Amino acid sequence: MEYLSNKKFPINSKDYKLYEEVGEGVSATVYRALCIPFNEIVAVKVMDLERCNDNLDGIRHEVQTMSLIDHPNVLRAHCSFSVGSCLWIVMPYMASGSCLHIMKSSYPEGFEQAVIATLLREVLKALVYLHSNGHIHRDVKAGNILVDSKGAIKLADFGVSACMFDAGDRQRSRNTFVGTPCWFLLGPYHCHFLFIRILSIG
Ligand SMILES: Nc1ncnc2c1ncn2[C@@H]1O[C@H](COP(=O)(O)OP(=O)(O)OP(=O)(O)O)[C@@H](O)[C@H]1O
Fold it and tell me: Ligand 1: which residue has its CA nearest to atom 25?
């Protein structure tokens, strides 16, 4: 089981070698990279803070959440630091990519039921952990369920997550619609169908 370790990842960009791009989101580009002192492959999410100027609070929240979480089914950050106008978030590398990517490349008809059941169990364990610690993910989708080289499943991307104990603006933000259009139109009572749809159609 992988829980918080005392391993201190370096917070200097010179200690990392960026390889190819492995993903691109609305706010960031993700690279496979080498952490040179540990000789360990990691993923580095590079966020251009100038491009996300109006959402610095959200980014701070994402980084804080990713550094504090400690559960085998939730993707955590090893460390984060700024490089010029960018923020680098160093994470474990999830070699098999997202469920969306796996479906698009190998299962265009969607996963088999047994695979869906396994993915569901792992994602639900992540959600139980997050909810019991006061976090709401708010963007559960196939592109945010990542798989590593050994088949371990982790929920990623806390860009629009919220905290149940937040006050002020962030508290109000819990009552707004965020995430990915099409998913948020479904309410919590449709959760079951939502998961089946996430994993069987994409
Ligand atoms: N640790 C990782 N290992 C391997 N690939 C990753 C990792 N983190 C992210 N990716 C890839 O990069 C893509 C984009 O990452 P992420 O969702 O964190 O960016 P984003 O800008 O917040 O995305 P969104 O558009 O969903 O808000 C993911 O869908 C995935 O394919």
Answer: 25
